[in-house]
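In practice, a research group might receive sequence data for several interacting partners and want a quick structural hypothesis before committing to experiments. The following worked case mirrors that situation: the sequences arrive first, and a predicted assembly follows.
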Amino acid sequence: MAMTIDVEDLGGAKAVSVIALDGELDASNYERLIEVVRDAYARGARGLVLDLSKLSFMASSGLFALHSAYRLMRGETPPDPEAGWGALHEMAQDHDAEAGSVRLAAPQDAVSRVLDRTGMAKLFPVDADRAAAVAALQGA
Amino acid sequence: MELHARRRLLVAGGTEQGAAIRAFVRDAVAAFGGSKHASDDLVQAVDEVACNVLLHGYGGQAGEVELQAEMHDRRIEITILDRAPVFDPTGPVDPGAPQPPRRPGTAGVGLHLARTMTDAVRHHVRPGGGNEVTLVRAIDDRTDPAEEG
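A structural hypothesis for the assembly, expressed as tokens:
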């Protein structure tokens, strides 16, 4: 199953991009997501909502894409794909989740379990839906 | 004991085969009567192991991976067979442990997921070369292991 990526740029007090993923995020397509986030940052987005409501599967390569999104939205380069756990733990040490500029909206159960099992759920704020995530980023 | 036929899938190529691999696992678990969690867990674990082989096992060359699914005593066993150089995914992947020899790019996260999503992981070297990795998961829901960060 392929994955489609839909991007919506929102104005407001803080420029926010909403990236909706539909399908399965895996080793064959995670780099596309990283490029879409890179483009959003280049257009001026300083807050990012990943709408996961239609994402049915996320491989470990998808976790790497999430970590890359976190770094890109801070104006940093993506992590080294070879760093693996080291990069995730580095992220945990410097990460203030509630102050972060990347929020996850409405992950399905299978994706939530992956986020939980790897500790990533503690690193990204998770909201019930995209509207709540956007509101949290824009301080509404 | 209820009998189920062994199911097989042979794929060749790269990570674009992931979708076919996951579909095979979902179909097998459904045929065996597995729970939603059993299906999600095995899909995750098999994808991580099989795509690791397709990405790194053959040194950047196209290679084959065979999947076999069976059920024994209400446990689903999915075996991933390849002809790649020997790689044992049952070695330590704890982030605090010394890094074992590994394939480039794995860095342990996917293998950690494969282990935590299953009840057992077995590795054997195949006669004639290659790896046989078996992932075992109860067909029912189970108590989740402690979350790891």
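Before designing any experiment, note the following. Chain B has one domain: 7-138. The two ends of chain B are 39 Å apart (CA to CA).
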